[in-house]
Each structure stands twice: as structure tokens, then as C-alpha cells.
Amino acid sequence: MKFLLIQADGMPDRPIKELGNRTPLEAANTPNLDKLIKLSKMGIVNHIPKGMKSGSDVGNLSILGYNPEKFFTGRSPIEAESIGINLEPNDICYRCNLVTIKNKNGKEIMEDHSAGHIKNTISKQIIEALRENIENDEFKIYEGVSYRHILVWKNGMTEIETTAPHDILDKNIIQYLPSGPGSVRLRDLMRQAKVAIKKLKNEVPELKSSDCSDVWLWGQGKKPKLPKFKSIHKIGGSIISAVDLVKGIGKLAGLNVLEVDGATGYLDTNYKGKVEAAIKSLENDDFCMIHIEAPDETGHEGDYKKKIQAINDLDNKVVGPIIDLMENKYDEYKICVVSDHPTPCELRTHSYEYVPFLIFDSRLNNNNHGKEVFTEKAANESGIVEHSGHELLFSFFQS
To answer: What is the structure's pLDDT at 69?
Structure first.
């Protein structure tokens, strides 16, 4: 039996007036998902335990069968694992976003958590400049992908409060700056970075048009430990993503983390390459998770038209080819489609509603719902509810 899981990051949404009170998923053209759902089990699942913040860190741990309440230590240390940073026990690791903050009527407003989805060639120059200006024996900065980078604080303070930049879009940053014992060190570092970025943009003509103005530190934590995926599920496998967070979880879990050229985590990602890598991985492994980030990113942008495009692309460039390739290659296989959390366009950040899932088994007609489409509403009406998201994968692996 082969198992393929499609993680449609942030795909669920809320009804949008401009779409006739439909969600982007309802408005999208998804013939392949709808074909699959007619033969699949469908329901809703919760990947965000009560009291925890809704995010891809918690959500992806849950999707891969790890109880976040037991194993989550912070977002950034997971990403550090992907980059290959060897954290010491007393290191505190922070996500270091390149962001756009603009002064509007005397207020510093978080305009873009991704600095306009900054290109790697530009972010590389900025990170190199930041190393020269802010690194010392205490703070080290590491290059990631696009706007996503890492700061490590040797023997750092552990009681600082931070806020994700995508949670404060269009808001005054003043009340969301790092706070608590030792936080002045981080705020000083952020001010130094702002000066360094401004200086670099003035000196390098090709950077003048860059949207990046600042760094934003958040998602801190210490080095996590996960039991190996195979020891829990008795099955090995691979994971495919453009996002360091997801790659980091894969590495910690002992999964094969497959690199795909042109994978960006946005609308321009290499869908074809991801699908081909996933199918090829199943020649040697029995499980693969393919992670698609674009629905989440377009939700953060608050652009429902782009989110519909992201869902159309997911259906046309991922789900459709996977169905065809699995049908031609394997007699017995299962496909799961699920999301880690909603990212409603109206909020431009994550919310806490349960998300739809489907499980298709090539051996069975598992239709438990009588629905013709895979949407939030249809999933809610199915009557199947999984309250503990980390248990969904166990049921997926059941023969």
C-alpha cells in the first residue's frame, strides 16, 4: 500500500461578499478534488489544540501525527533544523522575517510580513549586510529562503513575548514589539538592522526598489526532539516542501526531505517538479507528504483572486496529475488531502476553525457523505469530526 498526503496549507477560508458569500475553495474550479471526493471519506479535523496559537508549526506537527501539546517547543528551532543549525541546549532561536514597515500618520504600520515576497538574490545581500552590522559573540544570523531567516541568541533570555508579523498586518507595531525581561536587547538589534538595511539600499542601486525595510523577530524556542516517524507509524517516507519549517519537522522526524528545484512556496512554485518527486519517492518509500504553501501566502495577502488561483493550481497541477500517476502505477494506494489551519482573506492571518479533509482508498468506495464537492461547508455537513488532529494520520494508515 502506498500513502500520499497533500497538505494544502491555509486553504480553508470564510465566505467572501465579493464571491457571493462563497469561500475561495467554493469559488475555485476543482474538478479533480470533486472527482476524488465522490469516492472518499470526508470530514473536518482540528490541528490546533486549545490554548495554542494557530500556525503551520503546530498544524504540521499534528498532521504528521505528533501531539503539539507534547512536542512543540517553538517555530524557529524547527526551521533551524532544516537549515542545518546545530543549536546548543541554552540557545534561543528566533525566526527573522524581512518585512515592510511604513510610517503612516506618525504610526509604524506592518504593511507586509514578507517584504513583497522578496527574491532570494535580494535577501541574500541583505542578510550578508546584517551579518556585518549586527552579528557578535552573542547573536548570529543564518540565511534561509526569501523572507524567512534565523537569528540565534547564545544563552538568550527565555521569558520574552513576541508576535508573528502576519498576525499584525496593517497594525501599529508599537504594542507588538518584543516585551519582557531581556527584550530591550532584541528591540535594539531590530533598530540596528533597520539602519543597516536603509544604508544598504542607498548604496546598492538594484536594492532601492526592494520592499524590505526591517527585520522582525518572533517564533522563538529551544532545540526540539521528536521520536522518529517510523517508530510511531511503522512506515518510512518522504516530505516535499519549499518551506524550512516543514522541512525541519521532516528532518526531526527522520523522514527523507526531498529538494525540488524551483520550489518557492508561492504561486510561481514548481508544481510539476514536486509531483514528480513525490511519485518517484514512492518507488522506495511507502509514504510521502507534498506541502503546498501558496493558499496560505495568498490568504495572508488578503487577495481572494490570488487564493482562488492557488487552489485552481493545486487542483490542476497537483491533485489531477497525482490521481493519474497513482492510478497508472499502483493497484493499492490511499490519498489524503488536508490543511493545517484556515487562513481567511478577511483576517490575513490564521484562524481556529476545523478544516476539511478527505481520505481516498483505491480499494473502496468510502463515500460517507453523499456530497459532490470538497468544500468547507460539505465537510462540515458530513458528520465526521476529528477533534485530535494528530490522530488523523493513524487512521489514514489503517489498512
So the answer is: 96
Q: What is the pLDDT of residues 311-341, one digit of tens each?
A: 999 999 999 999 999 999 999 999 999 999 9
Domain boundaries, the chain: 2-72+225-397, 83-221
Cα(203)–Cα(283) distance, rounded to whole angstroms? 51
Pick from 186, 189, 166: nearest CA to 178: 186
Listing from the earlier edge strand, what are the strands of the sheet with 40-45?
A: 256-258, 237-240, 287-292, 2-8, 333-338, 355-361, 40-45, 385-386
**Residue 3: helix, strand or coil by DSSP?**
strand
Of residues 256, 294, 309, 297, the one with CA closest to residue 278: 256
pTM of the model: 0.86
Percentage of residues in the chain with pLDDT exceeding 70? Answer: 100
CATH topology of domain 2-72+225-397: Alkaline Phosphatase, subunit A (3.40.720)
